[in-house]
Amino acid sequence: MYKWFLASRYLYTKLIALFGVAAVTLCVAMVLVVLSVMGGFLDTVRSRSRGLHSEIVLEGGTLQGFPYYGEFGEHIQAEYPDLVDVTTPAIYTYAIFRVPATTWTKPARVLGVRLNDYVKVNDFQKGLHYDRYYPGTTRLGLQGIPVAGVVEPGTDAGRLPDAGTFRLPPDLEAANERWRLEETDPEAIRGFDVSPFQRAPFPYVTPAILGERVYSVDYGPPRYEGPEHYGVIVGCDLLNQRRDDGDFNRFLARGGDIALTLMPLSRTGTATGEPPIRVPLRYVDDSRTGIYEIDSLCVYVDFDMLQHKLAMDPQALVAGGHTPSRANQLLIGLKDGVDINAARDLIGQEWLRFYGSLLPEIHDVDALAMRNAEVYTWEDLQRPFIQAVEKEKVLVTFLFSLISMVAIVLIGCIFYMIVEKKTRDIGILKSLGASGRGVAGLFIVYAGAVGLVGTVLGTGLGATVVWYINDIQDFLAYLNPQLRVWSPDVYSFDKIPNVVKLPDALWIASLAVLSSIVGSLIPAWIAGRVWPVSALRYE
Prior knowledge:
two-stranded antiparallel sheet
């Protein structure tokens, strides 16, 4: 009993123990912050990677793509109705992205998708900006520029009407009303009402003031104007201006002109000899996946339009007949509860059988393209990146844990000094009947108490830093822009992960208390070997 009593007394009365508490606090906080950020980084990689792909992907591996993707999709849906939920093709290529109104020109990765099916196999729709406030209005088909007009009678044409007098075309107003009825966050509705959209005087498509939403306006009725073009969804970092709070200001009105310059390829991957193709498009929305490399590079267009522009649709042959249409990927969504790896193996075997059944009849070029196609899970496609992040997490955690070992040494030194100072007390305890094991246990319990207090304080400090780490970075960047340590173009994600996992905190806390006890073992052993007579004569 005396061990617990004296350990608690020493903890409150010996100021030197505060250095041990401080060491444990800082080490626990440091390891918890590093592990939480790196673990959150890894979890974000996994979740975002899953959200970008379907569960299963038939990947062609080349820019020229592979044929008979549609036939195979129909085949596996018919053969495995309890396994396959939906299939949809995709095309990817590269292009020059240009905004004619501002001459903004960038390289872009172009994805051709059938939007209604594409959003069924991944989380793409969750990242659409305008589709949130005007649900169901983001389309990749032919469309004009939505122009907000004046609907209230008696408006003075000599002055610009108030924002409340402008109304969008009826389908957009109806969609916004649906959002209001379904939105559960009143703050989101109030924030929208403060500034529904910034105005770009039609026929211009750039506003005087940047804002979250931009539409063209004039004094006519609400309507759609201009020639109809196919729609394009643009990665948020490719087109917009990122604000300090992580959201974006937009400088192009919805429906504004976008131009893509494409280079078609033949079935063998060579240039067709035709000049590059300029495709006029309408900016209908922007997408935010949260992965900077994607949001700063990718645009999404209609699959059938892109397939035609790239000459990947059936082409007439000189000898008669047509080439089969081609795609770069077949995205396969599975039914709920299906084992993804077993589905991959089964679909992979079915692809080989399907390819073998066509082999005697198809052209050698098509046979080679089909032979290069392979079946992957979403995790297979992202495995190199995920494994690299896993190794980084282990390495960084190991390095900081190694640095934290200084706490063990520091506690050992502190407790050695305490034993030296308490030699007479040790002699008194032993003369009163305390055993060497009991005296050693006193200092071990004392070290455990120091470790426990430091662990509680360190866990609280580390968790607070993690929870507010983005605010801390913004504050430092406000003081000096050079202090912004997290750059989205370097670290892929636009926010620092800020979640503390309970299992991580528990094992760090347990290890910290155990390390404190380990650090006290040598001083405790020395204290237990002190002879009472020598201790009482100690000066």
